[in-house]
Automatic annotation (TrEMBL):
It comes from the Bacteria. PANTHER family: TRANSPOSASE INSF FOR INSERTION SEQUENCE IS3B-RELATED, TRANSPOSASE INSO FOR INSERTION SEQUENCE ELEMENT IS911B-RELATED. The lineage of its organism: Bacteria, Pseudomonadati, Atribacterota, Atribacteria, Atribacterales. InterPro entries: Integrase_cat-core (IPR001584), RNaseH-like_sf (IPR012337), RNaseH_sf (IPR036397), Transposase_IS3/IS150/IS904 (IPR050900). This is DDE-type integrase/transposase/recombinase. Residues 36-110 form the Integrase catalytic domain. It comes from Thermatribacter velox.
């Protein structure tokens, strides 16, 4: 391989980031796999994705309106903490000003 200028490519280890053993109150799943809605700003879903960069991991929290399937709030940061998700939620609320009540569904990882 060395003569040909080839090198083995190693994979990065999988990193578990969801802490299911936290002491926070668990909230029941009100969405219950019903991903259709009749009006905008009634049901929102959110999640976090991890983006590898040359400087380390970039964490991106997004909030999507299930009616339009549009991303209505997002935040990125180099730290994975609750501020990341709360900031994305604040931005979505400021941007859309949803009527009360509405449902915000997440996997409760943070």
């Amino acid at each position: 391989m060395e003569k040909c200028g080839c090198a083995a490519r190693t994979r990065k280890r999988y990193r578990v980031t969801t802490d299911s053993t936290h002491s926070f109150k668990k909230v029941p799943n009100l969405l219950n796999q019903k991903f259709q809605t009749e009006k905008p700003d009634i049901i929102w879903c959110s999640d976090i994705t991890y983006i590898p960069t040359q400087e380390g991991w970039l964490y991106l929290s997004v909030i999507m309106d299930l009616y339009s399937r549009k991303i209505i709030g997002w935040e990125d940061n180099g730290k994975l903490n609750q501020d990341l998700t709360l900031c994305a939620l604040r931005k979505a609320i400021e941007r859309t000003k949803p009527p009360a009540p509405f449902l915000h569904h997440s996997d409760q990882g943070i």
